[in-house]
Amino acid sequence: MASQSRRGKSGGGDDGILARVSSTVSESQIVNYGKQVASDATFVTKKLLKSTGKAAWIAGTTFLILVVPLIVEMDREQMLNELEMQQASLLGAPPTPLK
Length: 99
Known about the structure:
Elements: H1 2-26, H2 29-91
């Protein structure tokens, strides 16, 4: 019986020390500062990702509206020039250099 009471007291004493150390560490200014820095870093990262997504959307839609039609038109023009050159060569006319 005496050994049981000693184990109960020593086990409870260790939990008390661990609880005190844990609460002391969690209330530390360094820990609070670290939490604040992590919170600020998370906020900045979220804001950066959101603005990067918006910029990517703007760049993508601008590319589709302005650049893709230009590429298609340039390809059509080149195909038309090649067709004219083929027709001229079939008819026997000397090919004219493109300007």
